[in-house]
Amino acid sequence: IPLESFQAGGRIMTFFLGPVIVSLAVPLYKQLDKLKTNKAPVLLGAAAGVLVSILSGILLSLLFGINRELIISLAPKGTTSAISMELAKAMGGDGSVAVAFVIFAGIFGYSAGEWLLNVSGVTHPIARGLSLGTASHASGTQRAFEMGEEEGAMASLAIGLVGVLTSVFLPLLLRLFGL
């Protein structure tokens, strides 16, 4: 498509992105006291989720003999499409493939996340929201908001934390594994 058409569509998306971000921030602001009280568990939980997400992608790929480009494309699956695409491309992976893995993680989390939390016995709203936001980004956050405002707020927070933490941990872990 012509660049002008692409940019016009991008402007429309950017226009609507502002209200979406605010709609995620308002519930988080309402839960600020709970966040302050639980800041260490929230940060540690998000960090653990990011490490498990990246390491599971790397280790399973190595176990099955998958090539380097695909490993790097799979590893950032725990963050949003925009971040994972750029991280994958910067590290030598395929951005489009990375987005496909992100979409799969989001759909799986939306579809099965609440059930998995129930089966696992996870009942605390902060843990449930953080888990869904960490593992399934925007789709998980949508499911978390369906479960409750506290869950949704924590999932919203997780999206941002996971993006930052993935950007920090991914290059280190890829280097650690010689990728």
Question: Any overview of this molecule?
Answer:
- The protein is mostly helical and 179 residues long.
- 86% of the residues lie in helices and 0% in strands.
- The chain contains 8 helices and no strands.
- The longest helix has 28 residues.
- The radius of gyration is 17 Å and the shape is globular.
Quote the average pLDDT: 84
Query: Between the first and last Cα atoms, what is the distance in angstroms?
Result: 35 Å
Give the overall form. globular
Helix content: over 70%
Proportion of β residues? under 5%
Unreliable residue stretches: none
Number of helices: 8
Oligomer status: single chain
Number of strands: 0
Question: Radius of gyration, rounded?
Answer: 17 Å
Outline of this structure?
This protein has 179 residues and is an all-alpha fold. The protein contains 8 helices and no strands.
What order do the helices and strands come in, and which of them pair?
Elements: H1 3-30, H2 32-37, H3 39-63, H4 68-74, H5 81-91, H6 95-120, H7 125-147, H8 149-176
Which features characterize this protein?
single chain; 179 residues; mainly alpha; 8 helices; 86% helix; globular
